[in-house]
Each structure stands twice: as C-alpha cells, then as structure tokens.
Design a protein that fits this description.
binds zinc ion; globular; six-stranded mixed sheet; 9 helices
Length: 311
C-alpha cells in the first residue's frame, strides 16, 4: 500500500541508510522517505585510524540491514569533501582522512555505490526538506560544534560547486575585525583568524581561556553566564558578535531566505535573540530580514540528510 506521507515525485521508495561520520561519533539510521525505520546507532569514531573507520562503517551497515531485512541505498555525510577528479578527501578536520581515497575504499568494502556529501551539506539538505527550512526556497545551514561548517541549499538541492566547497565559510577570515582580532588565532588549516578558530566550540573555549586563563567547554561557559558570571557573559557576547559578522558576510553574498543553526552550540538559546540584531547592521540593504532558527531534527539531521542524498 502506498504511504501518503512519502514525498511524491522522488524515487524514495527504497530503504536508505544515512551515515554521519563525525569527528567523535559515527551515527547511522535507516529511513524510507521522511520516515525513520530504525533506531539511531552510534559508535565512537576511531581516532587517527583510517582503516578502522571503514570497518566500523561496514559493521554499522550490516547491523542496520539485518534490521531492515534488505539491502539499502547508502548516503554518507563526512567532514570535508571528496576532490572532483581524484576522489580524495580534502578539508576534513578529522585530518587523518585527508588525502585518502575514501569513496573508493568504502564502496569496495560495501560492494556498492555510495553517495557522499559534506556533513554540513547533509544537515542543510535535511533541514530544508522536512525540517526548520521547510518552505524556504534558499537555506544556509550552519554547523557549530567541534568545527564550523556550512551548507547552501537552493530549491531543494545542495550547491556543491566545482571545488566542492559550496557553503564552506569556516575558513574565511573573521570580517569587520576589531582591534585585537587580527591576525587571530592559528587554525588547524594553517591560516590565522578563520571563522572556525573563533566561533566553534573549541574556538570559544580558547577565547575564554585567553581572557580568563580558564579552559572551560562552551557548555560550561554558557552555564556560568546563565548564573551571572561576568567573564562568561563577555565571552558569549564576543562569540555572538563574531558569529554575526561571519553570517552577515554570507547573507551579503547568498541572501538566504532562512538560516538554520546545528551542532552542539545551536542549543544556546541566546543566539536566536542576539544574532538578528547583531547581523543586520552589516547587511547591505535598506529593509533587512534575517530569519534564523534552531534545527528541527537536531543531531539527527546529519544522518537524515545523508540518507536523502539518493532523493
Ligand atoms: Zn582554517
């Protein structure tokens, strides 16, 4: 029997497995259309071990296919992207993947084609299809966690680009830099003052430590700020200002109808109040609209978007 909730006009009658290869966790689920068929399965990402990563993904697929009762189509969201010609990983903050022929090796291990996309692109696609971006024709999806990723979706499709870096704003320099913000902290990519080095979770930790000498996680800083700690409040204010300036630069280029935040820092509710006010002074328009929302699917968006790479 046809399921009326399944989106018409797309080939989404097949069962899918979406995998999110993160820096600390690998997560996977089974889906059909918008419907989740299995519980999420999650394991720790083997650190600095490329072959172990492939073996663990293969075991997750086997586990889910046992539950699904058949072979599924597989989409995978990953840090960085695959180079167009060589299919080698580039720009991954899980740096042990960089330069490796990940697509070829994983497809060989699984014995079938796999669709790959940057993890922030998967997040943006998921939120655009049936999440906080539903109904908007253009969306900028931002992941703020251990890194600072971004993905652009226009009319339901990811904008990947010839260099496969569409939406990758995390390694642009902080714009409208203020005294004391240049050259900015060193980033893993070799540059100074990247957005990621300022506004990711570790970026916030490092900023707070430079000002106070205390190394606290973003969560701990937010808790202190909520309890009235002035240094923690100042850190959150600097962070929101920098995040707003970086987002304003993207708005001035892409002008998305909606912006959706994801990743661990998207739980910070002050951002949805502060960011529109901080972004608008930098927007090159007379009437300014900024629609910025929390994710609907939260941590599930990565796996949901990966499964939907076959839509
Ligand atoms: Zn960088």
């Amino acid at each position: 029997m046809d399921n009326p909730a399944i989106t018409p006009g797309t080939d989404n009658r097949d069962k899918r497995i979406g995998i999110d290869l993160g820096g600390t966790k690998i997560a996977a689920i089974g889906l059909i259309g918008d419907h989740q068929l299995t519980d999420i399965q999650q394991v720790n990402t083997p650190q600095n071990d490329y072959h172990d990563s492939i073996n663990i993904i293969k075991s997750l697929v086997e586990l889910l296919e046992d539950e699904l009762g058949e072979e599924a189509r597989i989409g995978l969201g990953m840090p960085g992207s695959l180079t167009r010609a060589g299919g080698l990983v580039q720009n991954a903050n899980s740096t042990w993947l960089n330069g490796k022929p990940f697509a070829r090796d994983l497809e060989a291990a699984l014995g079938r084609d796999v669709r790959f996309a940057n993890d922030a692109n998967c997040f943006a696609l998921s939120e655009s299809r049936d999440g906080a971006g539903k109904g908007a024709s253009s969306l900028f999806g931002i992941i703020l966690g251990t890194g600072c990723g971004g993905g652009l979706v226009l009319d339901g499709r990811i904008i990947e680009g010839p260099n496969r870096i569409g939406g990758e704003w995390g390694h642009n320099p902080l714009p409208w830099a203020q005294p004391g913000e240049t050259p900015g902290p060193r980033c893993w990519c070799g540059r100074n003052g990247c957005m990621e080095a300022w506004v990711s979770g570790p970026g916030m930790t490092a900023d707070h430590e430079r000002h106070t000498g205390e190394a606290l996680t973003a969560e701990e800083i937010a808790a202190l700020a909520a309890a009235g700690d002035n240094a923690a409040i100042a850190t959150l204010n600097r962070h929101a200002s920098r995040l707003a300036r970086g987002i304003a630069m993207v708005v001035n280029i892409f002008d998305p109808e909606r912006i959706v935040l994801g990743g661990g820092l998207s739980n910070m509710s002050h951002l949805y109040q502060d960011l529109p006010r901080l972004i608008t002074p930098h927007i090159f328009a007379d009437e300014k609209t900024v629609d910025i929302r929390p994710p609907k699917h939260g941590a599930m968006s990565g796996v949901r978007g990966a499964a939907r790479l076959w839509d």
